[in-house]
From TrEMBL:
Residues 1-21 form the signal peptide. Keywords: Coiled coil, Signal. This is OprO/OprP family phosphate-selective porin. InterPro entries: Porin_dom_sf (IPR023614). Residues 25-52 form a coiled coil.
Length: 474
């Protein structure tokens, strides 16, 4: 029985082995599919391992470009060509700088202004023409041409205690008989800021200016010729001599400024200036032992930017001067002594866009060699209305570097009176002017003025004048 069991077990094992050695078609298909799934899983694991290694260890050198774009790394010939192009670029830039660029040993800014004018007056004149010419009524003129240079001799980057300079020239016409013109020095000065200027707009300012410069008297005398709203300046400016440059030392400063950063607005409560000058005009040495002294103070109302009283300013100016009093004996003219030549001025300034006005009064006292001193007086009132975008901060920020610039227009009227001798009647002259200004760009404008001049002197006819002027700066 035991033997039979052994044979029966051996037979069953043999049958099972024969069954396993000869699988069916379905079993074979299942095994193949299982192998394919195993191979796919192994391939996915291999790809994941490669991606991880690429993220951890980035490609180096030329492999970066190859990894990103699939391009081949640069060769030595490529690098040599790039170096050659850079050398050529450096040479071209250096050549342009040496042959086509103005060079200076200091920081330099060059600027200037040119004014071309057409004039017509109904009363004939021979002013500016030869003695034998007939009276003329019209003329074309270059009324002004200036050239200026400015910059810093020393720039304090830490606190802004800078030492600046300015040198300016102006074109002047000679008589037609000479048939030429000349350039005269107008500004030639050094300016130093003893107090820090980079601490913020809230801090007061102070400057010391030494050399030939405009004097701080009134309003219009301190404004450059290119910025005055009227083509012809106020009568007292030249008649009292306060519109000319002087050589000397002038200290200018302000105190307690009101600042609104949102509108880029700064208005000092007090502006002041004091100085000492030669007193006999530009481009001359002093002609006597006395010096002229001057002082000015202006107060701006401390109001908010949105107040209707914004930019309302009251100013007063004083100029204590002396001049040579001459006497003539026969054919010899000599200086007898020095006499006083004082000036006093009062002004009001208001500019609340778009409306504004300026009023200025100036009075002079000139001592004579014999007789009482001559007292003279001049005053003017200017009303203006401005509309446009040139002075609007949001529009100025959109200005391009080409010919486009926001435009503005200005209508104005001026009354200007001059009395050369207050003790003498019927010698006053009154000029009434109406005009229109168009501001094309930051330094370009067109002006048209119509003026009527009336004289108190009996028998002297009034006259009308029409002026058109185009002004551009660079």
């Amino acid at each position: 029985m035991t033997f039979s069991k052994h044979w029966l077990g051996a037979g069953l094992a043999a049958w099972v082995g024969l069954a396993q050695a000869a699988p069916t078609t379905d079993e074979l298909q299942q095994q193949i599919e299982a192998l394919q799934r195993a191979v796919t899983a192994l391939q996915q694991q291999l790809d994941a391992t490669r991606r991880a290694e690429t993220a951890v260890v980035p490609p180096q050198g030329g492999d970066i470009l190859a990894a990103q774009t699939g391009a081949e790394p640069a060769t030595k010939e490529d690098i040599d060509g790039l170096r050659s192009d850079l050398e050529n670029y450096k040479y071209e830039q250096q050549r342009n700088r040496e042959t086509k660029t103005a060079l200076s040993t200091r920081a330099l800014t060059i600027g200037g202004t040119v004014q071309a004018r057409a004039t017509y007056q109904d009363t004939g004149t021979r002013s500016g023409s030869s003695a034998v010419a007939d009276d003329r009524h019209s003329s074309f003129d270059v009324s002004q041409a200036t050239l200026n240079f400015s910059g810093s001799l020393y720039r304090d980057y830490a606190e802004g205690r800078n030492l600046d300079y300015r040198l300016a020239f102006a074109y002047a016409k000679n008589t037609p008989a000479n048939n030429n013109s000349q350039f005269n020095v107008t500004d030639a000065y050094l300016r130093y800021s003893p107090f820090p200027t980079v601490t913020g707009l809230e801090e007061p300012k102070l400057t010391l200016t030494l050399g030939q410069q405009q004097i701080p008297f009134g309003l219009e005398a301190q404004v450059g010729e290119e910025l005055r709203p009227v083509i012809n300046s106020a009568q007292f400016l030249n008649n009292l001599g306060v519109g000319t440059r002087q050589i000397g030392l002038i200290v200018r400063g302000d105190y307690d400024p009101y600042v609104d950063y949102g509108f880029n607005y700064r208005a000092p409560l007090l502006e002041y200036a004091v100085g000492v000058v030669n007193g006999n005009g530009p481009n001359k040495s002093d002609d006597n032992s006395d010096k002229d002294w001057l002082a000015r103070a202006a107060v701006t109302l401390p109001v908010d930017y949105n107040s209707w009283l914004r930019e309302l300013k009251f100013g007063a100016s004083y100029y204590k001067g002396s001049r040579n009093l001459t006497q003539t004996q026969g054919t010899t003219t000599s200086v007898a002594r020095q006499g006083k030549s004082d000036r006093f001025g009062f002004d009001i300034y208001y500019n609340h866009d778009p409306y504004g006005f300026t009023y200025e009064l100036a009075q002079g006292t000139d001592e004579q060699l014999t007789g009482p001193a001559v007292k003279s007086r001049g005053q003017y009132l200017t009303l203006f209305y401005t509309f446009g975008e040139q002075w609007v901060k949001s529009f100025r920020g959109q200005a391009k570097y080409d010919d486009w610039w926001p435009r503005s227009y200005q209508l104005f009227a001026r009354w200007d009176q001059w009395d050369p001798n207050l003790d003498q009647a019927d010698d006053r002259s009154t000029v009434s002017t109406a005009g229109f200004n168009v501001f094309f760009a930051e330094t370009t404008k067109f002006q048209f003025n119509v003026s009527h001049t009336a004289y108190d002197e009996a028998g002297k006819d009034s006259e009308n004048q029409y002026l058109a002027q185009f002004q551009f700066g660079f």
